[in-house]
Each structure stands twice: as C-alpha cells, then as structure tokens.
Design brief:
With 165 residues, the chain is mainly α. The longest helix is centred in the first third of the chain and has 23 residues.
Length: 165
C-alpha cells in the first residue's frame, strides 16, 4: 500500500493592524463630522421641499463616515496590500517645484514661475536635465499665458517676460 503524504496548507502570514490606514480612517471621520457640524450650524436655508440644499452635505458626510468605518475595519484585519517602499527624492523635487512657483509667481510672473515648476516636476519624474527643461517650461508657460491673458482676457500674474507682450 502506497501512502502519499498529505500536503501541508500554506501558512497564512499574520499581519498586524495597519496604522497608516487607521490614520486615514480617522481623517475621513473628522472630515465627515466637520461637514455635518458645518451644515447643522450654518444658516438654515428655508426650502419648500424636504430635500433642500442641506441634504447633500449630510449625504456626503454620511458616505465619508461609512468609508471611515470600512477603512478602520480593513485596517484592523490587516487586509490592505503591502505598500512599496517610498522613494522620497521625486516627491521632494515636485514639492520644491510647487514651493518655487508660489514664491516666484508675484515677482517673476506666470511664465518663469510655472517654467520652474515644470522643470522641477520633470526632474522629479526623471526627465531631462534642468538646463533644458527650465527654458522649455518657460516657453510653454508663456504660450499658455498669451492664450489665457490675451485670447481669453483672463488675468494671470505678469512679470518682466509677460510685460514684453
């Protein structure tokens, strides 16, 4: 008599509750409470029907609260997929581009500030050297400025480069 060994069940790796997901659940719950509280304490808008302008913020708050509870349950079970290790370098380049645009917008104008944002974001995504992407970003931004400012008559911050037009 030939007896085959019984295959072992694959061991399930026990995962601990996910702390980051609990933080997300808490933030969702806080946003839900703030929306509901703001709607409740805001000015009552008289309505001739049951469903008025206050119904939708309450619906959004309710959905966010349900999502918060669902996220907390999944976090407790530890069923979120493993996250990859974060690569902080690209994030720093992109945040630096946003900060640069905000700091430069009033002094240098839309084209130069947005060109810097374009170049640093491209660098964050691993594209092109800065000596090439900064002028390219400025040219693209200048074209956008001309279309919006001159063509559509919208007001965008103007700097020395835009004043030439």
């Amino acid at each position: 008599m030939n007896v085959e060994p019984v295959p072992e069940e694959p061991q399930r790796k026990e995962r601990r509750p996910d702390g980051a997901a609990f933080v997300i659940a808490a933030v969702l719950a806080i946003i839900a409470v703030v929306i509901a509280w703001s709607t409740a304490t805001g000015g009552n808008s008289a309505s001739y029907s049951r469903i008025g302008p206050n119904a939708f913020p309450y619906a959004i708050a309710g959905v966010l609260l349900v999502l918060s509870i669902w996220t907390a349950v999944e976090a407790w079970r530890g069923e979120f997929p493993e996250r990859e290790a974060e690569n902080v370098g690209p994030i720093i380049w992109i945040v630096a581009g946003l900060a640069g645009q905000m700091l430069l917008l009033k002094t240098t104008g839309f084209s130069i500030a947005t060109g810097v944002l374009f170049a640093l974001t491209a660098r964050g995504f691993g594209r092109g050297p800065l000596w090439m992407t900064v002028p390219l970003g400025i040219v693209i931004s200048l074209v956008i400025w001309v279309v919006f400012s001159k063509g559509l008559q919208l007001s965008l911050p103007a700097g020395p480069l835009e004043n030439l037009f």
